# Entry
Amino acid sequence: MNTYAWPPDDVFWTGTFPEHTAARTTPYLFKGIIPAIAATAEDVLAGFEIIRRAHAAGADIKAHARVYVGEERRDDLLPKALTATAWSGDADAFVPWMQELVGADRFSLVINNLETVSPTLAAGLGTFLKSLIDGWGLPLGGAEQVAFAGNYAGTAFGIHEGYEDAFLIHLGPNAKHFYCWPAEQYEKLTGGKEPTFGDYQALLEQAEHFLLEPGDALFLPRRVFHVGTQETFSVSVAMPLYTYPYAQILQSRIIPDVLAQLAGDGPDDPLNEPSEMADSAAGPGAVAERLSAVGSNLLHVAADRVRGEAREHAEQRWATLRSNGGWELVEGDLARQEAADAFDPQQVTPGAEITLIAPYQVTTIHGDGVESVLLRGHQTGIALDVAALDRDTVSALNDGATIVLPDNQELLTAVRALGATGGLHLTPRSADTEDTDA
# Structure
């Protein structure tokens, strides 16, 4: 039975959660926190069927599946799982279907970026993610859904270390056993940090044990070693929170941009003046001195520019992630593309109704004196308050309201641009309404 509010409220994230997890540093099982309206095992299997459909259509999508028999990854079996005639029925029918395909009684199916193929799970678990962001904070890399479905004796990755904070949400229909070790304990037991495969029964006896039942969510802090085992078929969805190191963001995005701006623009820029002929007698020392001097000057100027570039990058990242419901923004988001394809801009007429597709939000980003609108991680070319899309309308949409479109051509144009992001649901004006107006 769910003993927590749904979605979890601020009291949970600021009080209950850190108290039970020793300030978010130790595992804890929150019983019955995820209701069936948010996610079910059938939703995950339906997501896999969408991946199979995309494969048949030759679509290039981010979500992908992997098949394991025991601890062996079987890429040779994946084509069969993607192309065979679909199972008929629910999870009870899925198990013998997979067993026949893989030629084994026990199997596991792992699906990455499930949120990009399942609007149901993107919205349902997105409700949990939004409450997490509002109550705890925003992971700067966003979050992902990784599904584990099977009747495997142990997680195919063996006992392994998690590198991000994560929640493991168990959907059933049967229970899962889960075992955790702090890094220090695991290293003492095994002599290192390498994963453990095969027979690790002796290690299980030294672990903290959790019994996961449908609706439970296990918090797994980073750097905790863990493994799951089960005797019967069940489905879980891991939700890792990608909190990239600041140094990694600087190295991969911000500093290269700053240095590129300082590297000179065209052959007439002094910074692009060719190096002089190096004195053979002096050797490489003079070259090293010149490189050092130019480098020191560039880095000194770059240091002054990093603050501005960092703020611009942070604002862009923040607005992008929030507009995408907290999910990481990836290429090959099938659900987004299908929603965009289903949006008919010709149906954007006075009297039509629009709502946001959950869990996506309209956010804004500053630039050149105006606030540009983003939805589902994509900039729309719309300036807030300029194209008749005002703050009250944005707030109402973000609160889940249905907006009846007025006869305002600027607003209709803005709505057509929003719809192209795949974040908007449109209900066309009914023929009865048109006849009444006529």
The first helix runs from residue 10 to 20.
